[in-house]
Amino acid sequence: MTRPVLRVKDLRLSYPARGASGVVHAVRGVDIQVAAGEVVALVGESGCGKSSLARAILQLRRPDTGHVLLEGPDGTLPLHQLTGGALRRARRWIQGVFQDPYASLDPRMSIGDAVAEPLRAFGLASGTTSRERVAALLERVGLGAALATRFPHELSGGQRQRVGIARALASEPRVVVLDEAVSALDVSLRAQVLNLLLDLRRDLDLAMLFITHDLAVVRALADRVAVMYLGELVEIATRDALLQTPRHPYTRALLDAVPVPDPVLQAARVSRPLGGEPPSQERVPKGCAFASRCPVAEERCASERPTMRTVGGSAVSCHLA
Amino acid sequence: MSALLTIEDLHVRFASPDGAVHAVRGVDLEIRPSETLALVGESGSGKSATALAVMGLLPGSAEVTAHALRLGDQDLLRDGGRRARALRGGRMAMVFQDPLTSLNPHLTIGDQVLEAVEMHTDLSRGAARGRVVELLNEVGVPQAQHRALAWPHQLSGGLRQRALIAMALAGNPSLLIADEPTTALDVTVQAQILELFQRLCSDRGTGLLLITHDLGVVAAAADRVAVMYAGRVVERGGVSELFSDTRHPYTRGLLASIPGDLGDRDRLPQIAGIPPDPLALPAGCPFHPRCAEEIDRCADEEPLLDGRAACWVTRETT
Questions:
Q1: Which residues of A touch B (CB under 8 A)?
Q2: For B309, which DSSP code?
Q3: Which of B43, B136, B245, B317 has the greatest number of C-beta atoms within 10 Å?
């Protein structure tokens, strides 16, 4: 594999619990790397910390400890240490796309101005050059340059999500973090946006960290998959290894829970849905975080914390894998 | 068995500043006791408007007409829809997508279920409180007695959706309408909720109208399926025939665009274009501008549901 453009090392993020004196441990020591042209999918249930991890990587929330290293054109940028102007300049190389395209666009700003904003902010283009770049970006995401004069409310959800992607691409970043970027879209629009992302990966050699709870999307897009549970990664593997030979019991439970669009296969399934709910992030268990819901847990799982190790090419954090 | 819900030639029209929107354009559906009918379609296809028309929940500005709209032998359109309102929450109940916005943040879960129980039964206060715990138990809320005292924000999305289902069951409904009930939930919780629905249908004989855009959910939960596009049912059938012998190009497109194993392809099959503007439906078949199998006739004349599909191509080749 080529040298990773994004390296995240032992990242931790916590914040004060609402209305109490406790602390929510949202991200508990995550290591992850993404190479140029690679799509790494991050999956897990709501509340597992995947959006917190995205925010900590993008420095929208400052991590407690840990490293976020980005390969810029002039060397490695330690995002976790940068502040002020240095951080703003570094943001040119790492951009985010979020779930709700409506909330991330200013309703009073035309689509053209919204896409031009990063060009101006990073001093990349202005005037005619900027307009030409905006037109090219809108074409690139399949919208057509004529849309530049329209406003967010005149667009469909799928179109707005493309605008969000065009805006993220404007500064020619090396890394894009997408947080549930296709979750709000209808089936036919979702396929269109996923195809756009597949094209972009191929044409621009982008590194993408794709956060989703939708395992069907993982199938289509991911090169590698990281599975997160209660603030930690429990398994990292190539897409095919993860889908065909899931090593962690939690990964197996997640895959089992996805309904297959085939009534015959569906009826042949015997697995019972995973019961219960994840433990509180304020009271993280001493042993394996998944032990309380795990169908195969043994005594030591409740007391001894598993660490990441390599099993048949996959990295997995389970005593029994 | 006679039908629980009968819908014949249902139309829903809304006035909008830009003109009249004909959101539902002649829908026929039927649900029998214990049966789950999945109503599938994308945003704006008319699936939610159909459900709201049955429940009598459309705003007064909406115009609802039908040849028949009946729950058992009750005419839901009688007295200008007052009949539907009288049955709502009792013989028929609805569960929505977002459990947090459907719950009152200022009342405990138990008090909200209690309200529903008191509205639909003659139980004493004490007996009604007992019924609340029974209902919470039935929908799988652990430690129901204790959780009844919790506020909505203290519960997970899955538990909130269970609480809403408990409220919907308070009037012992024979028909339950669930609009995207698992869309906001994680897959693991979705599997639990779908299992709960299946149990309610078989144990209580409840008929379920399940509105969803997720064909995986359809395969897991439905007995029969109706696919809607631009206000009409364009394909219907038993769940296995719909998946194994798909008749409408739109349904085929939906099935193909589910991300599956890409294999050697580097792209997902996709349906071109976007759903039509309800203010300006194309002439002929409303799907023809996006259809890969279009023939001459499709642009001129709208096909009606004939057997399983509303499609000229299907009709000429089968």
A1: 45-47, 156-159, 186-192, 194-195, 198, 202, 213, 215-221, 253-254, 256-266, 273-275, 277
A2: B
A3: B136
